[in-house]
Amino acid sequence: MNLDPESTALVAIHCQGDIIGAEGAFADFFHAEVVNRGIVGKLSGLLEGAREAGATVIYTQIAYNPDYSDLNANSPLLRIAQQRESLKHGSAHTNFIEQHAPQDTDLVLTNQRVGGFTPEMASILEDRGIQTLVFAGVATNISVESSARAASDHGFHVAIVEDACSAATPGAHAASIESLGLLASITTSSELGWAR
To answer: Which of 139, 131, 105 minimizes the C-alpha distance to 14?
Structure first.
């Protein structure tokens, strides 16, 4: 893909210990496929390459008040977060895994919903002249897809780095990518040219 770094942002979706870590609250859902697909290494390379290219790097982080007063648990997944007492501000596993620690130039946007595309993100992107969003992270069929759909509906050009995303199962990942192919460009780390 030929992208203009000045108008492009790489959005790393929920690379937090609770979601992709071996000991996180959702490890039983996601960790096996994170390992099988080599997501940690691929995302690390993408993040480094995006910074070197001069693109904006954005991390989404889902986190709640310790008493969950800001959690609207209107879906099974969000109820699980509360039941497992996970994703609390200040908790070690709510933070990003060590390999994906944000740099000083990166943006970290916290959200309380499954999708990471928020009005705050839209405002920041528009202020910076960003026109294209490149998504990678976990889970393909949940937070990545939700964020990508919202970004597309908001008028941004969207790309999904297929080999830098994973879901709970290969089938769920594949079905999501197939659906997203109607809304976004589907690419790979090597095609994108940012992999390190």
So the answer is: 139
Residue-range definition of the domain harbouring residue 49: 5-192
CATH at 102:
3.40.50.850
Is pTM beyond 0.85? Reply is yes
178: tokens are 């197939």
The one-letter amino acid code at 69 reads: S
Give the SS3 label for residue 97. coil
Nearest to 16 by CA among 117, 125, 90: 90
Given a contact cutoff of 8 angstroms between Cβ atoms, the answer to whether 170 and 45 are in contact is: no
96-141, pLDDT tens digit by residue? 999 999 999 999 999 999 999 999 999 999 999 999 999 999 999 9
What is the distance between the terminal CA atoms of the chain, rounded to a whole angstrom?
A: 16
Q: What is the pLDDT of residues 148-185, one digit of tens each?
A: 999 999 999 999 999 999 999 999 999 999 999 999 99
State the total domains in the chain.
1
The span from the CA of 159 to the CA of 21, in Å, is: 25
Q: Which amino acid is at 75?
A: S
